[in-house]
Amino acid sequence: MPGRRLRRLGIFRKTLTEKHVVTRSATQSRSAWPAIAARTLLALLGGYAFTYAFTAALAQWLPLDPVDAVTASSLLSFVVYLTFVLWTFAAASLRRLLIGAGLAIPLAVIGFWPQLLEMWQ
């Protein structure tokens, strides 16, 4: 009978006579949903904020004409966003992710410093 062979191999977890068999991975996956949701939100929103700030700061730092600096930093922004999203799901802890997303604040200050000075004058 193929069911017995598959059950011996560990493929079938439930037989017709058993009710429900809750495996360890099913209970772990329920507790993992808040962490997955937090990482997804951080990847989407934090990645956008980090990339926006990085692009503005890089446009200020590049020793090119303003139009060329914005074009070069905008082209690089796609790679930066992809790297941030991949890093969000590869990082070991949520604390490291929040520190990385917090780097967007000094980058934003550097990138938007001329506009901030114009606002205050």
Sum this structure up briefly.
This protein is mainly alpha-helical and 121 residues long. It is built from six helices and no strands. It has a domain at 37-120.
Describe it.
- The structure is a single chain.
- By secondary structure, this protein is an all-alpha fold.
- It has a domain at 37-120.
- Helices cover 79% and strands 0% of the residues.
- The chain contains six helices and no strands.
- It has helices spanning 2-9, 24-61, 66-90, 94-102, 104-111, 113-120.
Features:
elongated; single chain; 6 helices
The level of helicity is over 70%
Low-pLDDT stretches:
none
> Helical region count?
6
Measured on Cα atoms, how large is the radius of gyration? Answer: 24 Å
Name the overall outline: elongated
Q: What summary fits the major beta sheet?
A: none
Q: What's the β-strand tally? A: 0
Average pLDDT score: 81
Structural class: mainly alpha
* Cα distance spanning the termini: 84 Å
